[in-house]
Amino acid sequence: MYFCAVFFAQVLLWKPEYLSPTRMENYNTIDTAMADLMERASRPNLWDSQPVFCFTSDMDWASEAVIDRCFRKLPLDLLQLTTFVTHKSDIIEDLCKAGTIRRGIHPNFLPGSSHGETFREVIETCLTFAPEATCTRSHRAFDVTDTAHLLHNEFHFKCCSNTITTLAPFVRPYWLESRLLQVPVFFEEGSFLYNQLGLSIKPYLKYFTSPGLKVISFHPVNMAFNTPCIPWMRQLKDSLTREEFNHISPEMIEAKRNRERGAFDLVMEIIDLAQQLQAPILTLDEIYQQTIL
To answer: What does CATH list as the number for 46-291?
Structure first.
């Protein structure tokens, strides 16, 4: 109850920048900078004539063993992966320093968050894991104007990826009213499993090969255990305490992982398809830069 009260107090007491006296005094002045960004985003771009892939991963407090099991089976140099981090990880740190992956933040703004009790605390905590981050995807895709304005105005974030679609065609990035660039997700393995679309992308190739941004999102725990369906992973998580989940060992993965088709096979099919198509693979930052050219 305490956390709920704190959460709603933040929403009710937050005073957006657009209500400040300075902004109100200039209400009749056109913001040419924003008008220019709108114009740039509306122009034809790479993704309007071909599929353009972008690979991302939400860390979701995965243990080092889970991250290692997931990443060492992926062609990371090809993927130009953006990881949305929730905690400190030596593996992520080393790969980031080597330039193999990029980092955004994966803040948990929900009540009871281990990241903090207020929106500001949550963001500040996550930035200790990735100080260079300028892109964000919230845990459970939580998104309100309060957090978006805080991220853009005070922490200078450029883009977010909080809209999760189910293979939406012709996806383009677009500006939010907060001035964050929203880059929607095309495929998320958990949503694909939730909607019971099977364990192969072959029936849906027309969506993957049509023009548009194809932002791919996956979770290391589903990759490491090769999750075949949502109830299967739910049963595994329910059998563990939070502490046990955060410290899953290589031995546990080997003992419990699914050995038939699962989430790992789905993502590998997508990677293979992107290579077969010789489609562009961009980072989220590159998508942002391409949008504002």
So the answer is: 3.20.20.370
